[in-house]
Every structure is written in C-alpha cells, then in structure tokens.
Amino acid sequence: MPSRSSSPHLPGDRTVLVTGASAGIGEAFARVFAAHGWHLVITARREDRLRALKGELESNYQVMVRTVTADLADPASPTRIADELSAAGVHVDALVNNAGYGVAGHLLASPWATHAAFLRVMVTSVVEMSYRFLPPMLEHGYGRIISVASLAGIVPPVAGHTLYAASKSFVIKFSQALSAEVAPQGVHVTALCPGFTFSEFHDVTGTRHMVRRLPKWMWMDAYTVAKRGYDAVMAGDVVRVTGGVNRTMAGLSKLLPEAVVLRAVRRNASKFRKT
Q1: In the chain, what are the domains?
Q2: What does DSSP assign to residue 23?
Q3: C-alpha angle 106-26-48 in degrees, rounded to nearest 5
Q4: Fewest Cβ atoms nearer than 10 Å: which of 1, 63, 100, 195?
C-alpha cells in the first residue's frame, strides 16, 4: 500500500476503506472503486472471503489491497483499524461505511446484548469510523465518505426489525449534518439509500423465503447500487436514493399524509418483514 504523496487526487494514488466488504453491497463497492483505480483497505469478519476478494481485485485491476479482519460490534474495532493503518502509513482518502445487518422480530424478541451489538455496528461505528478518518481528509483538502443507509430510513416504519429503520434514519441525518460541516473543505459525504438489493441480507435475517414473493422490478443488484453510490459521492450528492421505483416511494412518503403511507406500508410489510 503506497504512502501518501504530495497529490492525493491522482488516480492510482488514492485509497478507500470499505467496511463489510466480504459480501453484498460492500463487496460491490470494493469492485467499483478498484475499477476506478483506487487502492483498497477491505474489512469484515470473514477473513477467507476478504483474502479471496483481495486476490481477485489485485489480479483484475492491478491495485493494491490490504485486508483487516474486524467485527465492528466490538467497540475496540474502529480504533484498532485506524491505529493499524496509521502505523502502516496508509492514508484513507475515502471511507465506505457499509457494514450492517438486520435483527428480525419485535424489540423484546431478542436479548439486549443482540440489540447493543446491532447499534454498535449500525450507528456507533458509522460515527466513529467517520470521526477517526475525517481529520486527514480535511488536512489534505480531499475526502469522500459514503454511508449506506436505506429507503427504510425515509419511509414510515412498521413493526418488526424495530431498530433497523431508526438506525438508517440516523445515518441519513448524520450524513447531512456532517456534509454541511465539511463540504467547504473538499470532503463530500453521501448517504446512500437503496431499496431491496440482491445480497446476503435476507439470508442473515431469515426472510429470504418471504422476499421471494416480491416482484423482480422492486430489486436492484448490488453492483448497480454501489456504482450509483460512487457516482453520487463524486458528484457531491448528500442523499442518493437508488432506482426510479425507490425514488418514487421516497417522494410519495414526503408528499402524501403519513397515515396514508403508513397504511400502505403496513399492508405489504408481511411480505418482507418478520413481525
């Protein structure tokens, strides 16, 4: 991994850190950035998948890839990742806060330890990773931060996955506030809001059999979502909802009375959410 040169803007001399890079949207983000000539630091819990992705990206795109095995549910992980990269002389020009998952069912259906770990990954780590990697970006006058939120953070929530929509709404508001702070100094911050995306998410939450009932036109592939996110942060868009269907749903949720939208969401929630 090259150290920081005098020009952080040159292709082939930039490094992106992607969390949750072992599958789904995070893996797709790694491929998108590699295709644009970025070097990478990829982190996730599954070391075998990270190493496989590292070999693929280095072979296909002639970029340098560093792997860091870490679980962001561990409160010490953000500091450890930052310290390891600092010790290696790696300057992070872009950060993709992608790691995430869902906890199915009602709030009281899971022990507090499960929810606490969820909040550390979905909320606390997003803020702390941004906090730790933002100062060098400001120092160099160039930075990109993408935090993967969701359409669920925009439309009214329903029963089940109680903390998921709330965590994604936080990510959107946090990204908007952070962007207002740092955009004048050359750092673009984007909250990416996909809808249904082909990934392992629904396998982890145990809802794959449910979402299969949804029509194909409601889905997007992970690479397309990641590509839209890359284009958005490079253009300086603060919030990007991916796909025409999702943008329509997001727009209607703001224009129509909340009670009307909530009834519509509730009628269809049983198709994709455990309650």
Answers
A1: 15-269 (3.40.50.720)
A2: S
A3: 100
A4: 1
